[in-house]
Inverse folding.
């Protein structure tokens, strides 16, 4: 179970700090007690709720409820405070949530929902009155976490993960990233994102110290980064920290995922702070860890997604199912013990062990994976296939571009055309020139828009939102 190490850590190093925030910190003795009490309280509730939604800020109670639910054999369902009332209702319905535990300041967002709601202020004293001892459920196949991912339509889908999947991932974190109990791990992003949630929960399992940031603030993070040994981040955060000159002049492991990190951005960070050790990994909500670049790999193969984690197998397949040759683009299939359990009310991994999320790419002769794009995001323009991600990688390396997103919109002549949405103040002529130097002519966007780019909680481009935004702006321009 993902909480099974807490009692051992509390016994061996009771005063070791488990979690540190801007205003408080707790040691492992206290952490173990809080998790036991929370699990016992959940087990005492009438109706025995199994799916517990959490609507709390990035503070210790969030992790306490998440771990307590897992310890009790329940499934935690983190909710995004930015959601609308209608989105909350959808998320609670598709995740089959029995109970919501909510911060008082956010409770107004849940007006009208049918699921029972308890305020954290009201249950805290009940939890603290519970028995401090607790026996965890010993079934690693049980689900413990429900998250949400958007399909091509933008409608949320709920996925579940078992304890076993994250226990396998914890082993990768220790082995490939070298995280140890001595490390202080800074988690500056929302715990609603599985990337940052994983960073915190894996650190607690390993016995390190989690440094929680209530809200990401690049200019205000210099002191926190000086304290940290490891930083979990996404590319947009990393670029913001670089612009704010927030990184310390000391060794720091930087673990990045959630979106494509341009090689030019990595190089700029390494040039300015050569003592940083950069780890970049490719994974998805469904597949978990797939491939990673160590600092040494990044120097040799800066444009690769990485080599497979030790417990992961990758195959690139043609449409007929045959395996591709090295360098040949096809659909990426993954076989791994870290896969999700399935979508609630939807598809689950089959018995073969192999699974795809329709990402396209290729493997080079050295076994490194390269991502071309997602099949269902592919733009078919004039009968030719165009991957938005390939164009975005070029545009994100251009001066004046903070972030680029490419999407397809319908066109009477071409069928679809590529539209580039640019967050920044770049010159379109220069952007086209850079594209001509690095891309085939048919891949160059035919329309250019300037706007902020919507993102998911994990720092990825919100593809459905950007498609609608581009389509609306194109219609308005007509």
């Amino acid at each position: 179970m993902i909480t099974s190490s807490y009692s051992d850590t509390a016994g061996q190093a009771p005063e070791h700090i488990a979690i540190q925030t801007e205003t408080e910190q707790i040691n492992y003795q206290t952490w173990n007690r809080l998790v036991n009490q929370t699990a016992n309280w959940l087990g005492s509730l009438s109706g025995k709720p199994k799916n517990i939604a959490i609507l709390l800020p990035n503070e210790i109670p969030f992790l306490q409820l998440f771990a307590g639910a897992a310890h009790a054999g329940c499934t935690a369902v983190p909710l995004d405070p930015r959601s609308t009332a209608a989105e909350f209702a959808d998320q609670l319905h598709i995740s089959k949530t029995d109970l919501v535990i909510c911060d008082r300041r956010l409770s107004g967002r849940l007006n009208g929902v049918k699921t029972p709601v308890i305020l954290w202020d009201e249950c805290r004293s009940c939890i603290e009155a519970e028995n401090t001892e607790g026996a965890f459920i010993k079934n690693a196949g049980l689900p413990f976490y429900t998250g949400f991912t958007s399909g091509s339509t933008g409608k949320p889908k709920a996925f579940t993960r078992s304890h076993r999947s994250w226990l396998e991932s914890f082993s990768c974190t220790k082995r490939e990233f070298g995280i140890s109990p001595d490390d202080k791990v800074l988690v500056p992003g929302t715990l609603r994102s599985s990337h940052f949630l994983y960073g915190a929960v894996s650190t607690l399992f390993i016995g390190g110290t989690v440094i929680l940031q209530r809200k990401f603030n690049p200019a205000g993070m210099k002191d926190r980064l000086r304290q940290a040994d490891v930083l979990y981040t996404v590319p947009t955060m990393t670029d913001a920290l670089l612009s704010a000159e927030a990184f310390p002049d000391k060794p720091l492991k930087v673990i990045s995922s959630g979106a494509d990190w341009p090689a030019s951005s990595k190089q700029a960070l390494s040039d300015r702070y050569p003592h940083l050790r950069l780890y970049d990994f490719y994974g998805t909500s469904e597949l978990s860890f797939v491939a990673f670049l160590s600092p040494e790999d990044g120097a040799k193969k800066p444009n690769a997604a990485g080599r497979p984690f030790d417990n992961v197998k990758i195959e690139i397949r043609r449409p007929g199912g045959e395996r591709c040759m090295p360098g040949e683009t096809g659909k990426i299939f993954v076989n791994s013990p870290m896969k999700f359990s399935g979508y609630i009310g939807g598809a689950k991994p089959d018995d073969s062990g192999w699974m795809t999320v329709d990402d396209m790419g290729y493997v080079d002769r050295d076994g490194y994976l390269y991502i071309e794009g997602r099949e269902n995001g592919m733009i078919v323009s004039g009968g030719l296939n165009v991957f938005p991600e390939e164009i975005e990688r070029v545009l994100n390396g251009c001066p004046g571009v903070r972030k680029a997103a490419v999407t397809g919109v319908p066109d009477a002549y071409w069928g679809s055309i590529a539209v580039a949405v640019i967050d920044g103040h770049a010159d379109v002529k220069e952007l086209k020139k850079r594209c001509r130097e690095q891309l085939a002519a048919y891949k160059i966007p035919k329309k250019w828009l300037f706007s902020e780019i919507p993102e998911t909680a994990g720092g990825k481009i919100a593809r459905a939102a950007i498609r609608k935004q581009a389509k609306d702006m194109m219609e308005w321009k007509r």
Observations:
- The two ends are 57 Å apart (CA to CA).
- The CA atoms of residues 57 and 212 lie 11 Å apart.
- The chain has three domains: 6-159, 194-374, 378-477.
- The chain has a mean pLDDT of 90.
